[in-house]
DNA sequence: CCAAAAGTGTTAAGCATACACCCATGC
DNA sequence: GCATGGGTGTATGCTTAACACTTTTGG
């Protein structure tokens, strides 16, 4: 319940809050993608002033009858045609002068998508490009900060739950999974230790087919075990372990 | 940069965004306090309809010329007289119908304060009460959810950085610190293991004075080492270790 | 036959856990 | 002198980290 000066709860009683105080609210999306080689970020180039030519995240104003989560989903849907994209609210940026046009509060979300699964047409229509995380250019407004915050959050999250669900195709190889984690943490892991750790979690199922695209020998395909995360199929001890998943 | 339908960047060019789409924005504060015995939550009782008698978080509408962080600080300042309270943005709640009076987006913050350091007058003026975390009553709107989210975030945060800074007085005893962590995680720790872990982090300085209030024998007072967290005074190895602080 | 990527085991060190008794003091 | 809370050490198992070679196969 909102309370404004004087800091008395009686002020909350008005049937409508002060319309003078309404603020423009936007959603901005940090879109991470993985193409089995590198973790990438989708950026959009402004075609007009101000900031013409600058790279930017994609966003939209929030209408009064749309929730924040819906707003973010819609951006992703219009862009990718995908409905069930993973979206996580990152943080809300509320500095008064962050947008020179007008005071805008922006709620940032980040999403994880499989690059191969959506067509590049939509991307090209928007003058967009995938960037390696290392090559992210300067972004307009506070979007650079948003991206930094999103990467930090992604890393934090990746040690608590296996993100492969969202970023990898249904069937994937252990080398791919390793590359994904190496991209996220910008480091290298020992393949023996990586496999040992991942397999000990009992969240993967090995298939008997191989992916031959990455090497001559081929690499076995795995899939994530459904329900491996809701705990119902696990003892307590295993579940506790899971919470510390992937702490290399 | 905000973009609204049509999803074209050219729409961003307007000098002013559509004023029809402005939304009422509020800040709500989850206030955690510690009194050397239990971790508590400060709640406020509504005196008027709607929701008369319900317990609630404290909040305020955000004015167009005030940042979110400032808005949250001001609430805390008016309430406690303290200027440098720890405040962390938790999450933004944006469901369309979360407030029956009007569509309001609420940015939730949580703060950590030392209960003993501010006067209860301010609290009593607001018909407020400290609740043990276990006894939190039903709250109005989605405030209950906010509190649950804040507790989860607090626990997550407490394993990455020592929160004692914010919740304990400058000088404190190890038993107090242990009780604090036990409150946060709602569990018990072995005192030998707890001390070993905490002291191995090199973030505490022992003083040669004792606090005699808790026992006949008295317990040595400690303080947090300044700069123990900015990494400058530490080797890389130690800093890495710190990032995993307090993972009981 | 060789280049390129996939796959595999062992050891040592560090960390977390479990556990029980003495100490200092006020009353 | 006893009740109360403060303070201490050790042994065990587990997790992590470091490390190098063999396998498969397409070209």
How many structural domains can be distinguished in the coordinates of chain A?
2
The CATH class designation of the largest domain in chain A is Alpha Beta
Oligomer: homodimer
- What value does the Rg of chain A take, in angstroms? 21 Å
Please give the largest β-sheet of chain A. Answer: 7 strands, mixed
Shape of chain A: elongated
Structural class of chain A: alpha+beta
Strand % of chain A is: 25-35%
Task: Please state the second-level CATH architecture of the largest domain in chain A.
Answer: Alpha-Beta Complex
Helix content of chain A: 25-40%
Summed up, what is this model?
2 copies of one chain form a homodimer. With 248 residues, chain A is α+β, with helices and mostly antiparallel strands.
Task: Write structural notes for this entry.
Two copies of one chain form a homodimer. The first copy, chain A, is built from seven helices and ten strands. Chain A is of the alpha+beta class. The first copy, chain A, has two domains: 135 residues, Alpha-Beta Complex (Nucleoside Triphosphate Pyrophosphohydrolase); 82 residues, Arc Repressor Mutant, subunit A (Orthogonal Bundle), CATH 1.10.10. In chain A, the strands form two sheets. In chain A, strands 1, 2, 3, 4, 5, 6 and 7 form a seven-stranded mixed beta sheet that branches. A three-stranded antiparallel beta sheet of chain A has the order 8-10-9. In chain A, strand 9 and strand 10 form a beta hairpin. Chain A is elongated. The first copy, chain A, starts with 23 loop residues before the first strand and ends in a 6-residue tail after the last helix. The N terminus and C terminus of chain A are likely disordered. At the A-B interface, strand 1, strand 4, helix 1, strand 5 and strand 6 of A face strand 1, strand 4, helix 1, strand 5 and strand 6 of B. Chain A binds a DNA duplex (27 and 27 nucleotides) through helix 6.
């Amino acid at each position: 319940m909102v309370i404004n000066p004087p800091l008395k709860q009686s002020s909350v009683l008005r049937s409508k809050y002060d319309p003078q105080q309404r603020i423009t609210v936007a959603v901005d999306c940090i879109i991470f993608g993985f193409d089995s080689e590198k973790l990438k970020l989708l950026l959009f180039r402004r075609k007009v002033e101000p900031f013409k030519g600058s790279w930017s995240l994609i966003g939209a104003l929030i209408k009064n009858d749309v929730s924040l989560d819906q707003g973010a989903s819609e951006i992703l849907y219009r862009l990718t045609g995908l409905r069930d994209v993973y979206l996580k609210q990152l943080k809300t940026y509320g500095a008064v002068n962050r947008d020179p046009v007008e005071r805008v509060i922006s709620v940032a979300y980040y999403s994880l998508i499989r690059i191969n699964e959506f067509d590049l047409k939509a991307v090209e229509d928007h003058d967009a490009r995938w960037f390696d995380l290392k090559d992210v250019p300067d972004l307009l407004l506070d979007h650079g900060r948003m991206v930094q915050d999103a990467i930090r959050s992604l890393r934090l999250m990746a040690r608590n739950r296996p993100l492969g669900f969202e970023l990898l195709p249904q069937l994937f190889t252990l080398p791919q999974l390793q590359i994904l984690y190496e991209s996220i943490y910008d480091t290298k892991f020992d393949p023996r230790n990586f496999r040992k750790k991942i397999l000990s979690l009992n969240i993967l199922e090995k298939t008997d087919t191989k992916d031959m695209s990455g090497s001559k020998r081929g690499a076995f395909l795995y899939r994530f075990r459904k329900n491996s995360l809701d705990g119902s199929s696990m003892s307590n001890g295993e579940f506790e372990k899971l919470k510390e998943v992937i702490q290399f």
